[in-house]
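Support reply, case 0932

Customer input (verbatim):
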Amino acid sequence: MEHFILPLIIIIFLMLPISVRAVRSKQAIDVDIYLSKLLDIKIDYNTFMRGLLSAGREQVKSSGLFQTIQKTYEYRSLLNDITKRSNVTKVTFVPKYYIDDPIVGTYINILNWNVISIFKKYLHDNFRKVEDEYYYVNIPNESQVGFLFEIEIKTRVIYLIISIIKNIKIVPKIIKSIFKRRSESNERASS
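Our regenerated output:
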């Protein structure tokens, strides 16, 4: 009986769901990672990345943001592999704009629906399954201009491990890049 407990615990751990929820509204941008509903572990991605990249400063600079985007592009094979094994359980995309001119408003409305269709195609092409989609173009008054974006992506620990093993050449580069940026941030903060 004792020999079955450890493999059972390992199997349960590998099957634990991981959920990433990103919300962008007029009030705030929030990204949270939920490691499991069973253990109820939540990581605030914004706080985690600020601590990882900015060496204790309050805000991450725009240059750091561009470096992060560049690195994300370099490591896209790992990200693509992870997304192919993930499900989008909820997506909401609502651009809100205010235009006085009805002709320009019509063109902006068409442009918004084209952007929504491109985004929708990207989701359906790159994720295993997409559920609970909500898209809408809103024309509110001037005080409510902006956009609402919410996405929830779910995967499992085993899928992450498989993706990492499949793209093992990239992992040391990612780790080295994180430590390099962290040390550069520490040097700038101390001087």
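We compared this against your earlier run and they match. Two observations from our side: Strands lie at 17-24, 29-36, 41-44, 87-96, 129-130, 133-135, 146-156. The radius of gyration is 20 Å. Please reopen the case if you see a mismatch on your end.
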